[in-house]
Amino acid sequence: MSFDGIQLDQNIDVDVLIIGGGMTGLSTAYHLRDSNLKVALIDSNFILESVTTKSTGKITFLQDILMNIDDDYLDEYVQSEILASNLLEEIINTNNIDCDYMKVKHRLFSNENVYKLEKLYNKLKKYGVVFEDNYIEAVSAVFNPGKYLYGLKECCKGVSIYENTRAYEILKDGENFIVKTSGGDIRCIDVVLATHYISFLKPFFLPMRSYLEKSYLCAVKTDKIKDICGISIDDEVISYRYYKDYYIYLSECKSTSNLNSDESFEKIVKKFDDVSYVWSNKDIMTVDSMPYIGEIIPHVFCGTGYNTWGMTNGTLAGKIISDLILKTKNDYEFLNFNRMINIKNYIRFPMVINNTLASFFKTKVIKPTEKDVFYKVIDGNSVAIYNDGNSVHAVYNKCPHLKCGVVFNKTEQIWECPCHGSKFDIDGNCIEGPSNFDIKYKGSLDDMLKK
Ligand SMILES: Cc1cc2nc3c(=O)[nH]c(=O)nc-3n(C[C@H](O)[C@H](O)[C@H](O)COP(=O)(O)OP(=O)(O)OC[C@H]3O[C@@H](n4cnc5c(N)ncnc54)[C@H](O)[C@@H]3O)c2cc1C
Domains of the chain, with CATH numbers? Predict the structure, then answer.
């Protein structure tokens, strides 16, 4: 795979601008590629650096979150996920996308809550789900999401795709929008927000209705490859699949307010003799466990809040959003941003807000200082510093999103915001939102060390 991205370097006019080139953005571009609309897609990074590419790449309707979805919506939701799984398979087959797609069985398993599985099985057996000992199972699929995105991008020849081009601001200009980006202004009629965490135009919508869950993953070499994957529904979430000659294992699912990523990595690495790769990934969990897909204000569309099931939901979002733009009828109003949410879903929410406030407090006031990671106030600015033994890396201790402090994750060598999960490289360049800005310390490092 080559990184052949073009960067925007002028002002342009289009009908539709898609911001974000992960599963949601590229799926939307795919359905609009042959329309007579002028469509552009921008991504702040290269297309293959999104949350999508760091997922476990399972495609299934048999999701752990079905446990939390209101009975009133369960059938509609399951049917939407079956449709999305079929659509994904159809896109792969029609376009011969080489992405290691294969059919496997997907299991929801439990050691502590088998009775819950049985209850769910009774609701889902009409969809071909089977129940054995401590698991329920359905035919599903796995693939390599990075290769799939690359294939989708190749299919979208009619769409102007700009990488390394970040959107900073969206302004209304009469009937149109002007999107300010790092490469120039883009005037458009419709905007698709496919940035994973949506902070444009409705900045407080997601903080009030969702939280971020972060998980830690590893890949271990194995010669015992199986055509099964699964996820547990117990308090300690474990998810696994096989890819080529690797066993991929996910555990330690925590809210992003976990300040010590290195400890979580240590825990999963200890479970195996020889781990080849480790990484973390985060997703947006909504109050009622269903995604937000639809039009949020006239001519602005979004797909977000996939509760760790974005392969199907991102695919579905692409179809729904393109139908809305092309004014084609669809039956997915129940996923809209403005749906009524049952009050009982808010019961666990004060705890989530509490966690975010606690992270804010811990990173601003207590500051988790270690010998090689420390904080200083310089010229009135709080600065976070990491000394790797050879050189010193300094960043402003203030996430541009909602001003939380940052902590250092030594395993991945990145700065992270525990409130909403923004990630910055070791020198403060923003690599994942919701922040849209860098936190590079602009003062002199020599002066900083003297002070
Ligand atoms: C550990 C883990 C495992 C998972 N495994 C699975 C799985 O097995 N199956 C499944 O169905 N789902 C899984 N998911 C969920 C899935 O990965 C996500 O829901 C999905 O990838 C989100 O897609 P997206 O398009 O919304 O976001 P992304 O893939 O992150 O795409 C957003 C894009 O927007 C760009 N962007 C952001 N801000 C800007 C800006 N200001 N300007 C321009 N571009 C911008 C980013 O660079 C990025 O490329 C998993 C999630 C986690 C955390």
Answer: 1-58+69-96+144-196+289-345 (3.50.50.60), 352-450 (2.102.10.10)
